[in-house]
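Cross-check.
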Amino acid sequence: MVVQEQLEKLEVSEIATSSSATPVVSRLRSQTWLLPMVLPALCFLVAFAVSLVNNLFSAESKIVLIFDSRHYLESARLMVLWWQESLAKGDMFAALSNLVSSQKWFGEYLILDGPVLPTTAAIVFAAIGKVPQPTDWRVLIVVLSLMHATSSLLVCLLAKRWLNSANWGLIAGLSWALYPAAIVASSRFLTETPAVTLLLAGIWLLDKFIKEDKPARMTAVFLGMVDGLLLLLKPVLVPIWGLAHLIAWFACNWKKRVVLPTLVVAGIVAAFVPWLVTTKVVNGEFQLLPQRVPSYNTAKGCDVEVDGWSAQPSAPLTEIFAHEASPMAAISGVWTTRPQESLNLALRKVTRIWSWPWNDFRQHPLGLSMDVQRGWHWLFCLLSLGGAFVLLTAPKPINRTINFVGYASLAIVSAHLIYLPFETINRYGFTAMPFMVLLAVYFAHALVRMKKLPQAIFKLTIPAIAFCYLISNDYVSRLVAFGCDASTAHSLELFVTWLAACWLILAGFSLTASLTPKKKHATVILLTVLICIVSGAVLAGFAFDTKPLTWSCRLQPGQSACRTLDLDNAQLRSLKQPLGGALVLIDGDSSTSGAKVTVNGQVLSDKPVIIQQFRPQSYWVLDTMRKYAGTMGFKFDDWKQWYAVSVPVSCLHLSGGNVIVVSADKEPLTVYGEYSRGHEGQFPKDLDRFSAGLFCNDGELLDGRLQQPISKRFVPSVSSLEAGGFGNYDDLSPVEGKQTGEYHIYLAALFNPSATGGDAGRGASYTKDLRSADFDPLLRVPGEGANVIGISKAQFQCVAKNTVEVSVPQHVTQGSHLVVNIRGKMRSHTKKSLFSLLPVAVGGKNNAFTMVLPHAPASIGATTDWQDFAIVEEIPIAAMQGAITKLHLGIYPGPWEQVSEYGVVGSYGQTLLKDLSVNFTANYRKTFSGKVNAIF
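Predicted model, tokenized:
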């Protein structure tokens, strides 16, 4: 503060000596009075406007209440009901007891979600007199946008204090306000956005306490309350937050060191008392912190079998340690069982936290592509690394408290490595990003003060671009495609990436050495430590990388991908189970469903289908995949995944060569393959599991399959590309370069065929024609005929029921699968329109099991001409707990998942439908339960 006052007096004295002293001094005085408020307020307004406009009016799918967010909203709804009943009865505890007895899950929700986020929403909704519903999502957007705006204001204030410059404060505040991931985060009702706000507010209060002349008791009490709210919001941040307090304690004088802990504890107690009392009334015992199944989260993060990713269904090792009493017991259990693999995984997880910006569903805030968003993110990461280096090697300031913001930022960023024992995803790294922005702005501030700024920027830019290019591009596959050995290319990748990282560090060292000439020894030590850390990260990320070097082959009609493999009957006998059947597995996408598959010269009558058609126990995973696909605006069929076709055992040569040919029939199709790395090939990706964590954190691939040690039997094999009767064994794809190795075309030996299996094909059938009388009368369209119904925003908001129920006759459910075919004609009434059909299968005991048909499109577009449409799904009967009794068919204007959750946002026009019918047909194909014992 003293330095700032001296600078302001100096500026005033210089301007006062000019010829236009009087008006300039007057304006300056006005600016010095307004400046502390105007620039932070500008950051606040920009952040609020950008977040509000982007999240309210964007055409992209709404993600406000996706997954955990819906859980938080339900807790907020129960809280509002509690408060309303308290006001009506005048007794808060009696109302709480009544709510607990009537809503038995309230206690469970409360312990799981904690009080902060649900209470914040509940206060807002109670203030406007509403019980929150999903259709009130706009209110949540306003609240989250205000939090983001407050965070931007605090970043501005902290940078201004640290750098003693209002201009640099403005740059920092706007940098965070416009950071794409922060805008996306403000559209999700999750704990990250409020956690960022609380962290920044806590640092601001700590800095304020340090720099005030006298111990500010109220500041410390408010700080304690912020601490308490943060601990109740994200308990895992306790060690991170403790470091910042420890740094502040050392930065204070002795009087403040005595006062700070006492007052902070008083504030924490004030924040915790309502929570403790409520948990005592609800659950009968005091609960200190929310319990977000820490042992389970730790077990899956340490599970080496799924590479530390979440998996649906859970992996066996995760299930073993998920029920331990404490997270440390789960960690100990995994590490003592698999120590070497656990260390390998921990090293490789370091880069997962900040490798991509947090944007699970690949939204495009401000219209920015994912490449631009990633570049923006990496710019902050690299500049913050330079800022940390300058901060640690800078001369000690006259006022030892002046760098508190910097040291606290560095501590908070570094302490985020506490997430390594858990599933390490970029969402967890998000709360460190505003502090990275502060460090990045500090580094930019230091660069600008250099005498030779252009040369410095040039010296730093080249290695930064080289490093970013090397870690973001798959140039290894290109090297292999043009003749380099796969192992050599991989080693070259490791060396060149390490070289680029060291080049970048040395470039930063040469700059910081000129900025901090008095600390050369400390700088050299830090440089050595940093190079060792980066070297370890590069080695862990690349040397232990088990991902295959993949390529794609786009087959045109008349071209075939072939794989010849030798089976050994002794290997099959060693499995000690009778062979129940076999599948040809093809790694492809939606185009693969049109492939013609031949085994040993016999053309298979069936076309490839998604592997879950043969695996009823994992069929429900398609529902999760559908949710992600619908939110992103495309079909999950387009993802990389396994397609399979059944092979009769009689068709196989159990002792000798087997030739599998996958041919493009009428349309082009894609088959994936991999380069050989000089070992027995990679294990095929998991057939049954889907990893949302892997899918969301790998911004380049649409692939949620895990690499896992399934029992693949190595057999001699050779792949070839055939066209026009000639085979090419050297180049397996017609794309540029030479793709060698093998196709991802495998033969799976399966056991335990289901009792309803067989290859008899289609069986009994039943068709139900739907007429306008089956629907709500408000859906009928006057003047369009008795069999025509319409759906529009106005009609949807008026009807009492927009669904129709169709019973499934028992005789069509006797096969292994039920084919559901929904057909009809559609047209738009006046212009192009958008509508959707929601088919929900109902079955199981007491009709308790429901599932949306996975291939139901998110929406269907109609034009002014009548057009046919169809939704076809084949459901394994066993996937519906052994029975399918009915089908519910809903009609919505626009995408059903958005409309059912958030209401009709905008206008989708009116769509007319006629000749609707639902056909059920029994189908017979082998299904296989249990483990896939071997893949060849």
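Residues 64 and 714 are 47 Å apart (CA to CA). The chain is about 45% helix and 15% strand. Passed to J.P. for a second look.
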